[in-house]
Amino acid sequence: MIKYSFIVPCYNGEKYIVKCLDSILKQTSNNYEVIVINDGSTDNSINIINKYKNDKKIVIINQNNMGLSLTRNNGINKAKGEYLIFVDCDDYIQNDFLKTIDKNLNDEDMLKIGYTLVYDNKEEVINNISFESNGEQAFKKLIDSRLMFEMSQQYIIKKDYMIDNNYYFEKNKYHEDLGLIPYMIINAKKVKSIPYSGYMYVQTNNSITRNSDAKKENKKALDVLYFFDKYKNTNNKLFQSYMANACINKLKYLDKEDKIKYKKELKTRKIYKYLLSNNLKRKIKKILAFINLDLIVYR
């Protein structure tokens, strides 16, 4: 059985896809496949990808444009590996990536790693904490660490864990990772986190997911609210509080008109009620949220 399935969605990635695929094919382990999905690219991506078609590790899927979430889901369903690894086409991985993963993986549902931000003239390592625990304990550790932990690219995920629980990415949503990955963590039986930053997260000027404008920020805020509504009835108060905080924090990205409308949505849901109040600091925060949500938005 193949152990790892790399899932690489590609939309107009002609400038980056070679570096991405070559970095995967340089891995010293041979127990993997690479599922490359051309998501209706209008540039030269598919012609570049087709140059790899004779490599037995490469599986090429060519589809009409479906968006990142459905493209990832397509890759999940096609994967033959025991574990899934998501790599964006404009990113790449270090040569010791699979060697390090192999050394640390021990039947976890999810293995978390750090990442390295790659700019034009510098790199910034975003390291990771180290632990082994069940999902709820892992979620609390990650919350307390204040590290970003929603990116799917930071996880090596057991395929059966995703499929058996119907964990798929939502169509046409920004923050599709925020709506899924934390929920998967808190419900996992076994989660491990290691201080390794071999995923190279390239910061490009033209990346769809890394640029912002007012219309896009409003859509992002409403999508986070969608995920809050989806998961608000979970019995885990820590997860409810996490989602409520995520919704409130979107206020800082909105322009004046959108902010007014979004605050009404939060007030209608009485979002402050979902915030934890199990210590003095959190009690004060909850009171301030009741008075004025702007008072607790992180700047």
Describe this structure in words.
This protein is α/β, with parallel strands linked by helices. Helices cover 38% and strands 17% of the residues. The protein is built from eleven helices and twelve strands. The protein has helices spanning 17-25, 45-50, 68-78, 97-104, 135-145, 159-164, 181-187, 214-231, 237-249, 256-268, 280-291, and strands at residues 4-10, 32-39, 58-63, 83-86, 92-93, 110-112, 115-118, 123-126, 131-133, 155-158, 191-193, 199-202. It has an eight-stranded mixed sheet with strand order 3-2-1-4-10-6-11-9, with helices on both faces. Helix 1 links the parallel strand 1 (4-10) and strand 2. Helix 5 (135-145) packs across helix 7. It is globular.
Which terms summarize this structure?
299 residues; alpha/beta; 8-stranded mixed sheet; 4-stranded mixed sheet; globular
Judged by helices, strands and strand pairing, the structural class is alpha/beta
Fraction in helix: 25-40%
List segments where confidence is low: pLDDT < 50 over at least 5 consecutive residues.
Answer: none
In N-to-C order, the SSE pattern is EHEHEHEEHEEEEHEHHEEHHHH
Q: Helix segment count?
A: 11
Give the secondary structure arrangement, pairings included.
Elements: E1 4-10, H1 17-25, E2 32-39, H2 45-50, E3 58-63, H3 68-78, E4 83-86, E5 92-93, H4 97-104, E6 110-112, E7 115-118, E8 123-126, E9 131-133, H5 135-145, E10 155-158, H6 159-164, H7 181-187, E11 191-193, E12 199-202, H8 214-231, H9 237-249, H10 256-268, H11 280-291
Parallel strand pairs: 1-2, 1-4, 2-3, 6-11, 7-12
Antiparallel strand pairs: 4-10, 5-12, 6-10, 7-8, 9-11
